Automatic annotation (TrEMBL):
Organism name: Sphingomonas bacterium
The UniProt record lists the keyword Cell membrane: no
Keywords: Membrane, Transmembrane, Transmembrane helix
Keyword Thylakoid recorded: no
Protein name per the record: EamA-like transporter family protein
Length: 146
């Protein structure tokens, strides 16, 4: 695999995550419901994923037999994120909302990595990692004040 591909995927994913809250907030205003907007967002995403799975992947559904129930919770995280950011972005501003979300993601990531939670390998917290997250937290304050 091209070493640049994961970087490009993360870059484009980040652009999508920054674009998703204001798009869903606009949809929420148009339909009068953040929850309905989140549902529509997930329905569109689900439709695209079904098409991609049918076109390119075709992993058999029997693969689900070995899946533990807690592994399905990821969809709930995504649903909450979509609804929460559609609600928060117009109230906090996109930059503030995203810096708060990114800061909380980084703190959670440090904990998950340190303890090797959710099936990831352990990657102990270091002072350098803590310093990096603290810089992001300072950025949250600066963006909020700006």
């Amino acid at each position: 695999m091209n070493a640049l591909l994961p970087f490009i995927a993360a870059l484009l994913g980040g652009i999508g995550l920054a674009s998703q809250p204001p798009t869903n907030a606009a949809l929420g205003r148009a339909v009068g419901s953040v929850t309905l907007a989140a549902l529509i967002s997930f329905a569109v995403g689900t439709t695209i994923l079904i098409a991609a799975w049918l076109s390119f992947d075709r992993t058999p559904l029997s693969a689900l037999r070995g899946v533990k129930p807690w592994m399905f919770v990821g969809g709930a995280y995504g649903a909450f994120y979509v609804a929460a950011t559609a609600f928060a972005a117009p109230r906090l501003g996109l930059a503030s909302m995203l810096t708060i979300a990114i800061a909380s993601q980084l703190v959670a990531a440090l904990v998950i990595d340190h303890f090797g939670l959710i099936g990831l390998p352990r990657s102990p917290v270091t002072w350098v990692k803590i310093a990096g997250v603290l810089l992001v937290l300072v950025g949250v304050v600066i963006v909020r004040k700006g």
